[in-house]
Amino acid sequence: MVDQLVTSLDAMGRLLLAMDSGVGLLIGVGFSMSASHGFALLANRLTPRQILLHMVVDALVLSLAFLLCILCHSLMLMVFEGIPLQPITFANRMGVALWPGLLYVLVAAPYVSDLIAVGLLAWIHLNVLVLLKAVYGIPFQSGLLVALPGFVVALVLVGLLFAQRWRRSYDTLACDVASLSR
Amino acid sequence: MAESSAAIQQQRSRLRFARHCLIAVLVGVALLSLLGLTAVRRDAAALLQPQSLLELLVWSGFVLVVVVALVGVYSVMADFVFWEGWMRGLPDPSRLFPDEIGQAPIHRHYLVYLDGIHQSEESHPPRVMEFLDCLDNAIAKDTLLVKGIEAYTITNVGLRSTLLAGWFWQRLFSLQEHHPNGLVRLICAFCVQANNVIKVGISSDRRYGPVMNYELALKIARRLGSQGFHPSHAARVVLVGYSGGGEMAIGTAELLQQLCHVPVQVITVCGVFSGNGSMDAIKDVAMVVGSRDLVAAFGRIAYPGRLPLLFLSNWNRWQRLQRLHRYPIEGMSHNGASGPFSVAFRGAVVKAVCRELERLSLKG
User: Fold this and answer.
1) What global pTM score does this model have?
2) Which of A18, B155, B283, B347 is the most exposed place for a label (fewest CB within 10 A)?
């Protein structure tokens, strides 16, 4: 059973390598994630132009968050596995792991959003582990140690951005309702 | 004579040609069917292989997730476009009730009924109407029962008249009511209920819930205003929510209290609710529950916020500060012949609602 699973994951790694989409995917993932919280911008009662501007800025910030995550992976590889620091080459090899993030726009769906978000983030993390094994031959257990800090950094950055947007929208609503109580 | 013979010959040859064409078409159809049948049999045989079944299952699951998510996104879009003010009709909350009223209304208590996910229009199904008539007869004279509020739309108009999808709902309701095929009617009813389930999901979503619940609270407040409610003469508003209406009632209660400036209390009947809504300012919540209600029991699993494990959830925090009143009814299920609107149980449900109203009156 475990052998079958490892074989499947190896096949998945070869498939990801064949996709060869590189770091350019980051922007697409950033836009998809930015679109997933577009309703927060609507809740803030922004104009269409402001919404568009916020979405572009958020997309770039989110792409940057994942770039930092990849840089973190690269540093961990150097520290624990002794692989020379080559962030650009590493990012080009590992960028493809982020492709499930293109579906992140579906997190905008009500109620099932948490399930979709957790599923997609877990999928991205699994892709990173599989690619670390396929490209650098790092076993899954060691890969987990290498990939975890970067992943946590990315999650914290994404979470902070989303929380800030939603908090502002609740403030707008609270202002509306508070004006009634006066 | 020769002319008529020529005409007959021409007619005969035309008929012969038509017959040949018909035979050719029939042979063609038969051949295609045969080929198609072979192909279908081959595909069906291939499909029954475990690997193909697994692939089909994975793709079906993927498509289902995407479709459900997209429908949900569309549904949220309508709420937020309304909130943004891009659709006309969002009322000014400070002008919901007139500054002064000429004659004091006879009603001091307002009982607002919010129906379950089966509701497609403002009018309720006959069985629910009978239940509401019983309830109307049982409540005190100074209490007004407000019915016919469509809990799953945010604008004052029903689904039939919505701006972008009105034509779709009109067609769906028409098929649901008049189509001779029972399966088509069932599918249409399922679509209406699926839309309402999504609205329950939006109301319970911690991101979208506050905006949607506020819009629904505005709608209820406007209806109350049109029925003679005025904050200066009213004592309280009681929201009675059946099934998914329970979620809408709990979600809107606090906001409605701020809009109406009177205490708002909630009674759920076979309620399926998340407990995610903010309830800090709500003092009284009661639940009428059936011992055989599996849907409400499933709701507790579907909404983890009501499980004791998540002790920081809004529902659990509220339960630590206030006392929840439960009215269990032995043998009652969620709907149908043993549901709360059935002849067998509606008396017991009405009695439980009235007991809770009396308890609240004594407390007040």
Assistant:
1) 0.78
2) A18
What tens digit of pLDDT does each residue of A60-80 get? Answer: 988 888 888 888 888 888 888
Domain ranges of chain A: 2-172
The residue in chain B having the minimum alpha-carbon distance to the alpha carbon of residue A116 is B65
Please give the interface size between A and B, counted as residue pairs whose CB atoms are below 8 Å apart. Answer: 74
Which two three-digit tokens encode residue A85?
């620091």
Contact yes or no for B80 and A179 at CB 8 A: no
Q: Which chain B positions have a beta carbon within 8 Å of A170's beta carbon?
A: 210
Contacts of A77-86 spanning 24+ positions with Cβ under 8 A: A77/A132, A77/A136, A77/A138, A77/A146, A80/A142, A80/A145, A80/A146, A81/A136, A81/A138, A81/A142, A81/A146, A83/A136
User: What is the Cα–Cα distance from B231 to B219, expressed in whole angstroms?
Assistant: 16
Q: What is the CA radius of gyration of chain B?
A: 28
Distance CA B100, CA B197 (A): 40
Q: Cβ contact (<8 Å) for A113 and B205?
A: yes
DSSP letters spanning A144-180: HHHHHHHHHHHHHHHHHHHHHHHHHHHHHHHHHHHHH
B94 neighbourhood in chain A, CB within 8 Å:
179-180
The ipTM assigned to this model is 0.73
